[in-house]
Amino acid sequence: MSQPPSDTVAPTATQPAQYSTEERNALLNLAHRAIEARLAGIELKVIATSAHLDEKRGAFTTLHLHGQLRGCVGYVFPIHSLYRTVAETAVAAALNDIRFSPVTREDAPLLKIEISVLSPVQPILPEQIEIGCHGLVVTYGTRRGLLLPQVPVEHGWDRLTFLEQTCVKSGSPPDAWQRGAVIEAFTAEVFGEIQES
Hints:
Largest sheet: 4 strands, antiparallel
Structural class: alpha+beta
CATH architecture of the largest domain: 2-Layer Sandwich
Radius of gyration: 17 Å
Helix content: 25-40%
CATH class of the largest domain: Alpha Beta
Strand content: 15-25%
CATH superfamily of the largest domain: Hypothetical protein ph0010, domain 1
Shape: globular
């Protein structure tokens, strides 16, 4: 099994919230506006409202409709400012998640949005993985799979199942983590709107 050095320090979820209620609301509002603007064929100017939101961060935007997953797209690595990342991933989750048909203009106002702002990705040992704390990235050859920290909690998975399912997400065998795959982890600050069924 491919393992990182023994002095690897796994990311933890003990840090205080990095984003204020106002910043969270601004990002959630931005996600809605970005989706609605794209559906209406309007160009939305994406300019961060603060230096904090202008920092480069990886993030995922998850959409729910009537209590069901409707799309989830994100950037693992900090490519753009968080503000731009949320706008782009919200639109991509609404229109380009191949698991779902595109969101319609009628459905857009009913969407409930959840945003996961990612910490930097770091190597982790299998025994260091904490359910509810860590998200995982498994890389096996040219294949890469990612699952957010909230996924194993929602499904009631243990650590082994979480590892196996992340491998499967990459298109690899469930035991790829024991066959040389690189295991990395991150934490996420997750916030969103109350989901209604």
